Amino acid sequence: MVALSLLAVSLLALNPVSALWPEPTNVTTGTQTLFINEDIRVTYNGQPIVYTAGYEPSTLTSHDIVQGGVSRALDTIFQDGLYPWKFHLRNETDWEPSLFSLKWVNSLKITQTAFDNTTTFKPLAGQVDESYELTVDTNGQAEITAVSSIGVLRALETFTQLFYTYSSNNFYYTPFVPVSIQDKPVKSHRGIMLDTSRNYYSVAAILRTIDGCAASKLNVLHLHVTDAQSWPLEIEALPELSAKGAYRPDYVYTPADIVKIQLYGAVRGVQVILEIDQPEHTAAIGWAYPELLTAYNYEPYTWYCAEPPCGSLRLNDSAVDTFMDTVMGEITKRVYPYTAYFHVGGDEVTANDTLVDPSVGTNATDVIEELLQIYTDKSFARVRGAGLTPMVWEEIPLDWNVTLGSDVVVQSWLGVSSVESLTNLGYKVIDSNYNFLYLDCGRGQWVTFQPGESYTSDAPYNDWCSPTKSWELIYSYRPSANLTAEQANLVIGSEVAIWSETIDEVTLDTLAWPRASVMGEVLWTGELSEEGSSGTRDQTTAAPRLNELRERLLARGINAASVQMPFCTEGGDCIQPA
Ligand SMILES: *[C@@H]1O[C@H](CO)[C@@H](O)[C@H](O)[C@H]1NC(C)=O
Ligand SMILES: *[C@@H]1O[C@H](CO)[C@@H](O)[C@H](O)[C@H]1NC(C)=O
Ligand SMILES: *[C@@H]1O[C@H](CO)[C@@H](O)[C@H](O)[C@H]1NC(C)=O
Ligand SMILES: *[C@@H]1O[C@H](CO)[C@@H](O)[C@H](O)[C@H]1NC(C)=O
Ligand SMILES: *[C@@H]1O[C@H](CO)[C@@H](O)[C@H](O)[C@H]1NC(C)=O
Ligand SMILES: *[C@@H]1O[C@H](CO)[C@@H](O)[C@H](O)[C@H]1NC(C)=O
Ligand SMILES: *[C@@H]1O[C@H](CO)[C@@H](O)[C@H](O)[C@H]1NC(C)=O
Ligand SMILES: *[C@@H]1O[C@H](CO)[C@@H](O)[C@H](O)[C@H]1NC(C)=O
């Protein structure tokens, strides 16, 4: 038995298979090798594209986007490519292709079959066609055909994953020719939510996260910009907000930073969506405007909020309306050119906050529901008035029975039954099921405990959403779990969440990658079939591809976590016996 399975694994390892991630819908590859160099002739709808290393688009035009994509793809192959030593038997010495009589990929012909329009660059879910076809023939002709420039970008990422770097300098090759791929995503919203309030992330770290998204065909970066702990967002009309509420004077996203982040994402087909969480999770406003808050810094925090410091915008105070008119009026204008959405929060509203609010004075559910309906209507009006579509957390409709418009996208986090309820109500849903998609979970508590009874009874100090969401668990995530086909269609996609109590940019990459890419494949290629049916993807077939994606991310400057040790990637038996 053991000998047999070892043999099977070794045979697999001896025959290189393309390791594309996410796996394309349809893919066939061959076994001929072609080399590539900087002389490759690239055309876009018949016009030459000049490869310029490091080219960064400065405008949202189809040509600039494609030129940027081509330059990044060739930079990736020639500068940040993968030398795949880890994917060959340890004693195999001749696995690299021969350098005699080289054959080359001579040309890359890109054809876009429709014109882009403004929705292409800031789409609502489903408004941009990301499909593409990619072929590389044995005569060295590569072709990409796509409906939109964003489809071209997706194809170029796949193209880079076909190539390897030779052990000696300056040779780059693909051993998979001929290649034929037709590909398109199953879900249109594939994102990462990053909390930049509990810890600050530099603009560079955010741009690197966008690089990771683009590399694995994720198309949304949702910045949960503000929360209770710090206000890192500059609002020019209210300079004290960030001057006092940011952790440090320089831990602030200026207007120019926001535009830079959004443009960087948009030209990579990654929409950056901002969230100003409200009315809870706003204690950071109190550094400048404590009079707008109720339950500000109240203790014990467990009575007034989910985590310290407490503080919630007053729900029956016209000064709050004026303040939010200013904040939202300014920030929605800033983001409008680059996004279709704005997220207005709404999670974890705590009943006792209105109890201690002098303008309300009760924690009665019906009173809070009515106040939240009015607050949410105003909040959505600000977003819609700016030409954007509102997003909100699930508690607003589910816990407080607030009625939303049919345009609104609801972000769910509490799991399958919440998604069932929301889709029953007919709402469009983004699922961030914490049982699968919360990447911060399972690393222990950030609060410290009192010595004494609880000191020992709370051991081993697990966090609330333990265990860790391993890549295998994320790979088993099914956005359609327990839904009818009609309900499943309302789930426009999912986001992994990176809440930042114990994460900052030092550990960001290892926590995000490659696990975010694992959700990415579930959303792009489709969820794994339920146990017992005849699916083709599973953990065992995915692991070699994921190991390779991880190495490619590393080569591109993203410190993705290790998936398996080289013993496994070299063909060792790392499969749990049945
Ligand atoms: C590598 O080692 C394996 C296992 O010992 C052996 O079967 C194989 O022949 C060796 N291959 C080479 C190229 O030495
Ligand atoms: C924009 O392009 C998409 C295809 O990428 C198409 O579905 C949509 O109808 C176009 N919108 C407009 C306003 O032309
Ligand atoms: C993949 O191939 C199947 C069978 O030929 C076809 O029905 C399907 O449309 C193809 N998918 C794409 C994205 O082209
Ligand atoms: C609300 O506050 C009261 C004190 O006024 C406290 O007894 C109660 O436990 C709090 N509710 C919750 C859910 O913590
Ligand atoms: C509402 O306030 C009362 C009185 O302080 C308290 O006993 C109760 O626990 C509160 N309810 C909630 C949901 O906090
Ligand atoms: C809101 O405040 C007004 C006074 O400004 C008061 O008349 C009204 O009852 C309050 N509403 C609630 C729900 O407490
Ligand atoms: C929720 O709101 C709807 C419409 O406003 C109302 O018909 C329904 O009774 C409410 N349900 C609860 C549980 O409050
Ligand atoms: C799905 O629904 C079934 C039957 O209603 C229930 O037993 C199961 O717990 C649900 N699954 C999840 C993940 O909620």
From TrEMBL:
Residues 188-526 form the Glycoside hydrolase family 20 catalytic domain. The keyword Glycoprotein applies. The active site is at residue 348. Transmembrane segments: none annotated. Keywords: Glycoprotein, Glycosidase, Hydrolase, Signal. The keyword Hydrolase applies. It is an enzyme of class 3 (hydrolase). One of its GO terms (cellular component) is membrane. GO terms for molecular function: beta-N-acetylglucosaminidase activity. Its EC number is 3.2.1.52. It catalyses: Hydrolysis of terminal non-reducing N-acetyl-D-hexosamine residues in N-acetyl-beta-D-hexosaminides. Residues 20-162 form the Beta-hexosaminidase eukaryotic type N-terminal domain. Residues 1-19 form the signal peptide. Pfam families: Glyco_hydro_20, Glycohydro_20b2. GO terms for biological process: carbohydrate metabolic process; glycosaminoglycan metabolic process. Belongs to the glycosyl hydrolase 20 family. This is Beta-hexosaminidase. It comes from Talaromyces atroroseus. The lineage of its organism: Eukaryota, Fungi, Dikarya, Ascomycota, Pezizomycotina.
